[in-house]
Amino acid sequence: MDPDCSSSSLNDIKMESGLDLFSKFNNKSKQISNIEELDRKLLLNLHANSIVEISGASRTGKSILVLKYITKSILPIIYQNIKIEGLALNVLLVDMELKFNVRILMEEMEYYLKQCLDKEPEESKPNHHLISKIIQDSLSRLHVSYCHSTSDNLALIFQNVETRILSKQLNLDIVIIENLLNFYFEDVSVQICSIPKYVHKLLTQCVLKYLKKFNIILIYTRYIEHSRGRIPSGLVTHSVQLTNINYNRIHKCLVNCEQVMYYRIEGQEIVWTEFNEAQLE
Fold it and tell me: Is the dihedral of CA 70, 74, 78, 80 positive or negative?
């Protein structure tokens, strides 16, 4: 037998570790059947393994959307025969800016619950104690990890996530990364890199390398001024671009580079509105 031929054949053989095989067996049938209910307006056709990019300048509502997605995801579908219309999913929030405030999340959850419970008959409306119990139970489905000092810690976080999922210590349906570009300027001072290439590299090497086998939805936010910086080609499945158009506090939302909608930010609410950009001319 030709030694070179034998060597070539051996090199072509794909080898997988026992953990890789176990993860495929363990997650093969996992379905997130109700995930499309997360946001029918912006995230149409969302499915397991979707990658969602929410981009925009400061004060365009990125964090408001994240807060609402966490709230909707971790609240129960039904609680003691009360229809809550949450998704009962397990969420990991990776905070790159170290600014997550659980009190604000709890206020958002309480506001959401009161809206849902207002639909209940007067005699069966739950008291404040029950609302607190629903919030407490829901928070058990949320995990928060803080990325300190450098983007290198992102890979360590997700390496740990992979290990914990494989060892059945953690169950995850959605991962949300707040401000993926937080360490961009520190990193590019060492090696010049465009924003799209930086995002692609960070996602593939530090995040997806560890998550892609688990059918987990990834949502991340990133700062972008106006419309500069293209979406990582072939990576993002859903894109939400938020822009301030500098007219009467109106903002523009571009979904998947096709659908255009307009909104105002009122407190912690995104209020969709009718608008015609011809008014600016």
Answer: negative
Residues 6 or more apart whose CB falls under 8 angstroms from that of 201 comprise 193
- Cα–Cα distance between 61 and 267 in angstroms, integer? 10
Cα distance between the two ends of the chain: 77
The mean predicted confidence, pLDDT, of the chain is: 85
Among 2.170.150.70, 3.40.1190.20, 3.40.50.2300, 3.40.50.300, name the CATH number for the domain at 48-222+232-239.
3.40.50.300
At residue 22, does pLDDT exceed 60? no
Write out the DSSP string of the chain.
--HHHHHHHHHH-----HHHHHHHHHHTT---TTGGGS-TTTSTT--TT-EEEEEESTTSSHHHHHHHHHHHHHS-SEETTEE-------EEEEESSS---HHHHHHHHHHHHHHHHTTS-GGG---HHHHHHHHHHHHTTEEEEE--SSTHHHHHHHHHHHHHHHTTS---SEEEEE-TTTTHHHHHTTS---HHHHHHHHIIIIIIHHHTTTT-EEEEEEE-STT-SPPPTTT-SEEEEEEEEEETTEEEEEETTTEEEEEEEETTEEEEE---GGGG-
- What pLDDT, in 10s, does the model give residues 152-177? 899 999 999 999 999 999 999 999 99
